[in-house]
Q: What sequence folds into this?
């Protein structure tokens, strides 16, 4: 299916009183329906359109890592059919249906997948989820306060720290600069990825798209390339080079 066919099919399946959800995919059963996307489907564009139609999304799987706190109430029915195949998955709540959009591993690449699953909708009188406003720490906070800030981020996201091993000595030797302790703690806990489709966080030793050393090398290479004159990939600032001033994203 192309983009519009997928959107139309999801609209039909997500309507109140829609048909029973029974998946035709081998090894899958009742409770959901998988829709096969064509290779031409743009996953990012599809996510944006689902968010426009169905509101706030939930990040359920990113970079192959599933949210360890996900439950049946927060999107587990979108993960259950795939086991460990998922590379990423976002979900939207729509009445008594979950809508999912993501990618599964297929050979050496990934295949876009869209599904609609059954959802136990909360009772009408249930209050909406609390919105927590996060106030960042002041710049003059000490290391203990900074680490408390990291713990607060973990608490607010409900994230179970991954405990990723990182050779910080090698990373810092290449960069030629020490990295903040709270950044290291966040990177070990989360890896690399995106918070709420808004904040892109660089980890170390994770997927290339979110690997800090790899992205820094790319920015440094672009800065040294005279093709675009004095334009910097970190503009309006200069990309950081060891021994000089500049930006490390």
A:
């Amino acid at each position: 299916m192309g983009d519009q066919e997928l959107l139309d099919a999801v609209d039909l399946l997500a309507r109140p009183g829609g048909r029973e959800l029974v998946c035709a995919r081998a090894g899958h059963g009742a409770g959901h329906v998988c829709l096969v996307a064509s290779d031409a489907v743009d996953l990012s564009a599809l996510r944006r359109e689902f968010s426009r139609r169905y509101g706030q999304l939930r990040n359920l799987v990113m970079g192959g890592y599933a949210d360890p706190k996900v439950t049946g109430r927060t999107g587990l029915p979108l993960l259950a059919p795939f086991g460990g195949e998922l590379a990423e998955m976002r979900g939207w709540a729509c009445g008594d249906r979950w809508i999912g959009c993501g990618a599964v591993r297929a050979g050496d690449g990934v295949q876009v997948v869209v599904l609609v699953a059954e959802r136990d909708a909360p009772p009408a009188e249930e209050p909406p989820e609390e919105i927590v406003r996060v106030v960042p720490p002041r710049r003059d906070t000490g290391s203990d306060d900074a680490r408390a800030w990291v713990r607060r981020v973990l608490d607010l996201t409900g994230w179970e720290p991954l405990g990723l091993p990182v050779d910080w000595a090698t990373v810092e030797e290449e960069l030629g600069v020490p990295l903040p302790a709270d950044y290291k703690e966040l990177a070990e806990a989360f890896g690399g990825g995106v918070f709420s489709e808004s904040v892109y966080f660089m980890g170390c030793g994770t997927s290339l798209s979110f690997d800090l050393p790899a992205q820094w090398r790319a920015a440094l290479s672009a800065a040294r390339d005279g093709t675009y004159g004095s334009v910097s990939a970190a503009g309006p600032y200069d990309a950081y080079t060891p021994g000089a001033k500049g930006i490390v994203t």
Remarks:
- The CA atoms of residues 154 and 240 lie 29 Å apart.
- Residues 125-134 have pLDDT under 50 and may be disordered.
- The first strand starts at residue 32 and ends at 36.
